[in-house]
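Inputs:
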Amino acid sequence: MNKQASASRYACPRPGMRWLPVWQRNFLVWRKLAIPSVLGNLADPLIYMLGLGYGLGGLLPQVSGVSYVSFLAAGTVVASTMNAATFEALYSAFSRMHMQKTWDAILNTPLSLDHVMTGELVWAASKSMLSGLAILGIIALLGLTHSLLALWVIPVIFLTGITFSALGLIVCALAPSYDFFMYYFTLFITPTMLVSGVFFPTDQLPSVVHGIANWLPLSHAVQLARPLVFGEMPQNAIAHVAVLLGVATVAFYIATVLTRRRLLK
Amino acid sequence: MTIANTADALSVTGLRKSYDGNEVLAGIDFSVPPGTCFGLLGPNGAGKTTTLRCCLGLTAPDAGTISLGGHAVPADAGVARERVGVVPQFDNLDPDFTVSENLMVYGRYFAIKDDEIRARIPGLLDFAGLKGKEKARIQTLSGGMKRRLTLARALVNDPDIVFLDEPTTGLDPQARHLIWDRLKHLTAHGKTLILTTHFMDEAERLCDRLIILDHGHRVTEGHPRELIAEHIEPQVVEVFGEDVASWARSRNSLGERLEIAGETAFFYCRDAAPLLAALAGEASLRYLHRAASLEDVFIKLTGRELRD
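Outputs:
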């Protein structure tokens, strides 16, 4: 590869605003399949939240000063966002990139791969937001939150969605086939779910695991979302936001470079 | 953004590209005047697709310059593609959308307003022979219809230049003739076409000029009829039969050139009459007497052996 080509491969993504038609395309497909999609995104986390929350919660005293279902619900908001963003950036984006060659079709138009990647990033985050918002709505319906501060969970959901979409797009760029995604779920997403304070406070964990958990983006999202649901300002809010933004930015850059390597060779 | 009439629609000089030390393009030059059809021919692996990708700015060349519609590629490829349409080799229509949704969504990538696209759709479908199919789902279309829809999609931005990568591969003769007719219509209306194909009759019919690539090199370039006149004797007699090889070798002098491939002997002649007279007495041999074609040129210049 000559200098010029390698410079353009590692250049910072320049999304502009022309990513919007890519987002719009995905939205139009989603609108056609909205009902099964919403069911899938919502039913699963809801069943976990209510089943564990009331079932297991009934056996437990208060956790961190609140009922277990409240504790779990606040974590589920961002955990379900993570899952929805990950599914979209892995399976759906991979279908469009690799199986349907939708991205190839778009790259023959004035749009660049940067536009495609940004459109996919924002789309996956938007779709995951629905998941997070639905859980937040149910929390409000069940009377598990009483504070207007809980509205600040909405930007936290979006930021969580962007972060896990960006991470997912890295995996998408590397995947030879759908089977590859199992590794990411088994080795990263599932452990992340378990140690980031969604189901139980992280100080229950051995200190080594606790240390690792502190590096995981989901635990920062949980530490932002849970206090807000309970009407408190999160501690170190700026630091948590900075970590999520930092991971999202770096991950999106890596995903873009890897996808350029894959598609623009 | 208009193209000056004097400028070439596409000009390529010294194009080079290697993958992992394998030279795929070893310095290709060509230029395409506006309003003409230019053919890019060659066996599999000759470098056609890489050339197209470079011209569209999807692959950065190792060396060489490309000007597409007056814009430098890859530097200004996005701007250049505003005035370009592409019919890719493999179908990539959106399976989740209807026919008109495919055109609508694709038009948006060119920043064309929805109303404007909506106004263009009937004309595009008419052109592609898909009238009344607006609401049809992609899965319900035949291969020929999909191909025509892909052509209509490539025209949604009313491009000056259209790239067609094997536009008729996999189509039946009827569908292929329809596509040819549509492509002729486009050049008649001033569009520039850049076409790759494995069908020599297609190239012969459609191309004003063509280039034959092999192993990343330009083997020859010219108008199809000129190339035939330059490289091949005007008449070809193909003789088939079990013992054709020894029969043909012993009558080598009846043609200017003789080639034997399997159970077929190809005599390339200026005057076929003596050979035809000799064949008249051979009951066990069948033959075909025809004019020399672009396929003869192609085979002569790139050889008969199979490519990957």
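Remarks. The longest helix of chain A spans residues 68-99. The mean pLDDT of chain A is 93.
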